[in-house]
Amino acid sequence: MVSILEITLLTGSVQHSATFCLITWVVARRGLTYPSMFNSLALIVTVVLESVLLGSDVSVGSLLGAFMIIVGLYAFLWGKGKEIQRQQQVPATTDVDRSKITDATSNGEGRTSRIDL
């Protein structure tokens, strides 16, 4: 017969492995700040599951904390979205052919000198 300790160790190791794989994937796709921002959602899940499964009361402080976590996460994602939009717009507006430079004395006509970068 399997003991509760063995089940706990098995589920803990599986959960830890899944979390490690998920965090590694997110870091590779989006960078280091995303996993740390989403770790705070575990507190909200803990409060909800504790209330549902164990029947404990949810305090006003827990609700206020959960609200603040959600607002902070939304602000972070909104700011990151704006930052990504700006990064995508910058290369399109500053695309300059740097292989040719026009001589200033020729008024933009005629002589061009080639510079290899």
UniProtKB/TrEMBL annotation:
Region (Disordered): 86-117
The keyword DNA-binding is annotated on this UniProt entry: no
Membrane topology (UniProt): Multi-pass membrane protein
Alphabetized PANTHER family for the sequence: WAT1-RELATED PROTEIN
Organism: Oryza meyeriana var. granulata
InterPro entries for the chain: EmrE-like, WAT1-related
Cellular component, GO, one term: membrane
Residue intervals passing through the bilayer: 37-54, 60-79
Name this polypeptide is given: WAT1-related protein
Listed GO MF terms: transmembrane transporter activity
Location(s), subcellular: Membrane
UniProtKB keywords: Membrane, Transmembrane, Transmembrane helix
